[in-house]
Design brief:
By secondary structure, the chain is α+β, with helices and mostly antiparallel strands. Helix content is 54%, strand content 18%. A hairpin with a 3-residue loop joins strand 4 and strand 5.
């Protein structure tokens, strides 16, 4: 009798694992998908160990840490995005790791109105002026990002160096790669664009 009860219990564990696996495929967002996948791995690992189903046990013991790692990545990503959302001044210094360093003398033109859009810029040292608008961008700011999101793909203003300036130039390919690898950067870009558009609508700010 005890043996029959044990077999029923083992079978129940297997059924729970099956139900959790089916639920995993039914999820349409990544967080619950990973939670159900982790739970399914645990139940199937117990089920396989009790019945000595070694291939199934090995598979679930391999999948479990993979799902745990992916779950941790999602949690870290959410925290990163939330941190970027709450930041008063976005931090764009990550561009240093991806961009090309360039130095300009005071009065030099970085790009002119009508130029083809090919890069955005992070100011590491110095400052630049968006010519004709009287807008100054300082160390820690970015400029040139607006034109990436326009249909014309051309510069809408001329940018000159107000003083000796060091910038990091980020081309389109690296810009897309950075947004993919660091979503908090993409969030910071969106917040910056939104803020600048609101300022422009109020007549306070221009963009390039």
């Amino acid at each position: 009798m005890d043996q029959i009860t044990s077999l029923h219990l083992i079978e129940a564990i297997g059924w729970v694992g099956s139900i959790l696996t089916i639920a995993t495929y039914a999820m349409n967002t990544m967080m619950p998908l990973r939670v159900f996948a982790i739970a399914a791995n645990i139940f199937f690992a117990i089920y396989a160990a009790l019945l000595q189903l070694w291939p199934l046990l090995v598979m679930d013991l391999i999948l479990l840490p993979i799902n745990l790692f992916r779950f941790w990545q999602i949690v870290r990503l959410r925290k990163s995005i939330e941190h970027a959302r709450k930041e008063h001044k976005p931090d764009f210094s990550v561009v240093r790791a991806y961009g090309k360093k360039r130095s300009f003398k005071a009065g030099s033109v970085v790009f002119e109105e009508g130029d083809t859009v090919d890069s955005l810029y992070y100011i590491d040292q110095g400052s630049v002026e968006i010519y004709g608008f009287g807008v100054l961008r300082k160390s820690g700011d970015i400029f040139g990002e607006m034109a990436f999101f326009t249909d014309s793909a051309t510069r809408t203003a001329t940018v000159r160096c107000f003083e000796d300036t060091v910038v990091y130039e980020l081309d389109k390919t690296r810009f897309m790669r950075l947004q993919f690898e660091d979503p908090s950067f993409g969030m910071a870009i969106m917040r910056t664009i939104t803020r600048r558009l609101m300022h422009e609508a109020s007549g306070f700010e221009g963009h390039a």
